[in-house]
């Protein structure tokens, strides 16, 4: 009997319950009125009226509470979903109302689909991450290879050409002024080319990174790129820190990208580069006082094939770290990254 009652839709439960209250009120009320006609006392009238009201409220409360229990259960589930817990499921077996039960089943189906989609997304993301890692490693290897070739072949040959030109210049008769001038101009050009090649080699694979370490390499790169543009640089770099080659390369590349961005986009006057290492984390921050930009436009930058800051984020994420770009028009830009030491 109780089970059958519970299985009734809420609408009918409330309707029938209230019909019951009216029925009790009509039958009981008539009987009480009869009694009151005989012994009409004001206390008795108040007593019976109070009993009637309390009874009616009590019955209605009980009816509505049992009828709305299923809704409370659902509300509880939806609240947990709202707080971000998508593992929760509505307890369909505890919901008697058929319409609500149907609703709860649909909610559960939706949550199951969401969980399946999330799993697929996570798998895709992991694959993408793996791919990015391979691309970055391949890029570093290729840079190393080109740097080695440039160093061993190109800059070696250029150095020999310079030597030969110097010898020609020294042995050319003093009267051959035209030839001597041409030789000197060619030597100057070769010197500049050699200097450019050395800079290219450093950009590709900073030998300083291997020899002197991260802090010195960052200092050198910042000085040679920022100072010619008249930008004052303040360094907050530790004297002797060493990390794994993977982390050092990543941190150097990130600093390199931040410095290049300042030269290309910032119109800054001052730059502060901070690098520190705790027992758990590396922190790198590059801050400028330039014109700044709106970081929400970065996703649009991707569609225009501007990958710089995206590459930074990829490197950091691959190493389990975090990356933050704070910037707004006229307020300068700060790139701050943290990389855990354990993940190396
Ligand atoms: N330090 C900075 N100051 C001002 N704008 C910047 C700075 N760094 C980045 N930006 C802006 O963010 C955009 C995206 O940067 P990035 O991803 O490195 O691509 P790219 O340097 O190839 O344009 C830049 O085009 C520039 O508009
Ligand atoms: Mg860039």
Indicate the structural class: alpha+beta
Going by CATH, the architecture of the largest domain would be 2-Layer Sandwich
What about the largest sheet?
5 strands, mixed
What is the assigned CATH homologous superfamily of the largest domain? Histidine kinase-like ATPase, C-terminal domain
Number of strands: 5
Rg, Å, rounded: 40 Å
Structure notes:
The protein has helices at residues 2-7, 10-38, 42-82, 98-171, 177-204, 207-211, 214-226, 245-266, 298-303, 308-318, and strands at residues 232-236, 270-277, 281-288, 322-327, 333-340. With 344 residues, the chain is an alpha+beta fold. The chain has three domains: 2-96, no CATH class; 129-205; 206-344, Histidine kinase-like ATPase, C-terminal domain (Heat Shock Protein 90, 2-Layer Sandwich). The protein has a five-stranded mixed β-sheet with strand order 1-2-3-5-4, covered by helices on one side. A hairpin with a 3-residue loop joins strand 2 and strand 3. The radius of gyration is 40 Å and the shape is rod-shaped. The chain starts with a helix and ends with a strand. The model has no long low-confidence stretch (mean pLDDT 86). Adenosine-5'-diphosphate binds at residues 261-262, 264-266, 288, 290-293, 301, 306, 308-310, 333. Magnesium ion binds next to helix 8.
């Amino acid at each position: 009997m109780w089970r059958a009652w519970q299985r009734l839709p809420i609408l009918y439960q409330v309707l029938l319950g209230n019909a019951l209250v009216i029925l009790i009120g009509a039958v009981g009320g008539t009987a009480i009125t009869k009694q009151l006609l005989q012994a009409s006392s004001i206390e008795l009238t108040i007593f019976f009226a109070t009993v009637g009201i309390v009874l009616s409220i009590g019955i209605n409360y009980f009816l509505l509470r049992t009828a709305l229990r299923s809704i409370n259960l659902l509300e509880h589930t939806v609240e947990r979903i709202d707080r971000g817990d998508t593992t929760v499921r509505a307890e369909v077996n505890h919901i008697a109302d058929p319409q609500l039960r149907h609703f709860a089943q649909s909610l559960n189906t939706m949550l199951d689909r969401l969980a399946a989609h999330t799993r697929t997304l996570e798998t895709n993301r992991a694959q993408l991450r793996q791919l990015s890692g391979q691309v970055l490693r391949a890029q570093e290897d290729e840079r190393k290879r080109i740097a080695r070739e440039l160093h061993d072949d190109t800059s070696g040959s250029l150095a020999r050409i310079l030597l030969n030109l110097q010898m020609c210049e020294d042995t050319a008769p003093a009267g051959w002024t035209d030839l001597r001038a041409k030789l000197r101009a060619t030597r100057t050009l070769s010197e500049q080319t050699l200097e450019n090649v050395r800079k290219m080699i450093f950009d590709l694979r900073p030998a300083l990174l291997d020899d002197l370490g991260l802090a010195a390499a960052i200092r050198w790169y910042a000085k040679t790129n920022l100072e010619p543009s008249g930008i004052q640089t303040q360094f907050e770099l530790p004297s002797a820190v060493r990390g794994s080659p993977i982390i050092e390369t990543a941190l150097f590349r990130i600093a390199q990208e931040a410095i290049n961005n300042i030269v290309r986009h910032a119109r800054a006057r001052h730059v502060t580069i901070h690098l520190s290492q705790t027992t758990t984390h590396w922190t790198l921050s590059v801050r400028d006082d330039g014109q700044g930009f709106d970081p929400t436009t970065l996703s649009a930058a991707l569609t225009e094939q501007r990958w710089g800051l995206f590459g930074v984020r990829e490197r950091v994420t691959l190493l389990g770290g975090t990356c933050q770009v704070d910037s707004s028009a006229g307020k300068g830009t700060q790139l701050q990254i943290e990389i855990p030491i354990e993940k190396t």
